[in-house]
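Please describe our next protein:
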Amino acid sequence: MKIRIITGVIIIVFGLLAAIGPQVMFKPCENQLSVTDGTLKEDGSVNITRRVPMRCVWTAGADLGIGIVISLLGVGTIIFPSVKTRFGLTIGILLCGIFTFLLHQNVPEPNSIFIGVCRGAAMLCRNGFAQALTSISILLIIVSTFYTVYLAKRKE
């Protein structure tokens, strides 16, 4: 009973950090990418047709959604008494942790596995945002793996 509550609270905290962290603590870049149509103005400058947010902004939005899902699954591990139900929820948490990890990886450059973060090595998102969320996702994967193994060994 105690391990169920402790693990559930840890998972909820990690989920909230993944959801709220990019919005409050470790923010992504605030710059916008200028997209041009390739034409020149009369003064010789490039014609900017629109500004779009950088990749890390989209990644932060995905983190918000996946962090909420992780937190809700963590609440489920506390509420539901069935070992089989908690086992299934914990596998879902493990998969969400893996997805969160892959969300921030830019391998091989310039491509990414999913959205990724900005390409520049000196960008704020590469030095704070991505590292923080990668660390949170690794810790989440470790906790959920141990809890999944614990539940697999337990009898109903």
Notes: The chain has one domain: 2-29+55-153.
